[in-house]
Amino acid sequence: MDQTQLLKGVLDLAVLAVVQGEDGYGYDIVRRMRDGGLSEVGDASVYGTLRRLYAAGALTSYVVPSESGPHRKYYGITPIGRDQLKRQGDDWRAFATTLDGLLAGPVPHPTSQGASA
Amino acid sequence: MNTTELPVRPDVSAFVARVRELLDDLSDEDRLELTEGLEADLTDQVAEHGGAVLGDPVEYARELRAAAGFEPAARPSILRGGVGLGDLAREGVERWDRWISHPRVAPVWQGILVLRPAWWVLRAWAAAVVVARLVPGWYDYGFVWLPGVEQATALLILLVCVVGSTLVGLGRVWPGGSTAVLARTVLLLLNLGAILAVPVILGQLEQQSWNRYDDGYSDGQWDAGQGGLTNRGNEVCNISAYDAEGQPLTGVQLFDQSGRPLAVGCYDQQAVKVPWVLGDVTRWNVYPLGERDRPARSERRRADLTGAAFPTPDRATAPEVTNPLVPEPRSRDGRADEKEAEGKRSDREDGRSGGTAYDRRR
User: Where do the segments described as Disordered lie (chain B) (predicted)?
Assistant: First the structure.
């Protein structure tokens, strides 16, 4: 299945997940996500998501001037962000477990057992 | 905060500039937040993956906008109206957007955008010329670039037009950020008018400068005509005449090839010179003219000749000259000749030698 379709619902979660350990600037975060396996994530989507999370208070941001190139804008997670990460992380795990269960095949059932025998 | 102060690859800065442009319906704050640091991020990406990583800025801006949770870009209202024409225009605008976002074209387009202020000044000037034409009257020696009006007026008109044009260009005054069809169309037509007017105005200026030259030339000619005689550009105020033998002459009447008197006409001549007279008519073509030691500016004073005299010429005699058309005066060998010469000299001293040279030629 197309990864970008799947990502739409969980981009916030993915971004929060890669920022929780260490602050990062835009492309740095994209790189972490791609290195983590989300190879198809679009950078514009990530930058937009960063901005939205920042507006919601889940991220903080600061600009670091650079001697050799343009300034970098760093993002770091806030308590609100950690809270959101935990909540959405739990939701995701529950969802994934459910889906894993569905994918594992039909659950053994007394009636069906008899029928199949 | 400005993130664009430090050097960035031109294709990256052009790309970011285009993305910012596509987000210009957002508030400045939102737009800044959304694109701050974008140069740095894209510079990194380009460094890692090459320039091809910069795709279509229209698509990029759309993705950025959507991910950040903003409404999709509102279509400018000029395109919203008609169905067929609107769609056509929208398609054209999108094609144009894509074209100027092309990695090869974008830097050039950015360069052209930088020249916009120059265009504002140019169209202001075109407008100023039109306004200057509406000012009643015509002033010949006005501001060169704004003919027909006085310097101060011209500068004022220019200043007002430049300020107005710049404010329109910056979107501060009409039609400003408005996307109303009528206002936009009128502005477009005015701009087209200015473009068409520039060569016409330039042609007229060319004509104008020629006219000025002509005027100056004929003024100069008129002055020369009034001024009497000139010699190598300088006014002639008096003439010292010598005959072929180099002796000074008094009372020489001069005429040009058409028989017109060769009269001098210097500044204040009536007051400082004593003319010759024919009956009661003054003759200014008889030389040398007497000179007064101080100007006499009234009829009564002019009657008083005290202190007036013929000027002392810059040399007492001139070298003797000959002409093949004039018979040798046999001056080298005979006493008779000496006598004759002496006789002539005494004639001159009597003051009756006017036109001596003329006589000799006969």
Answer: 293-362
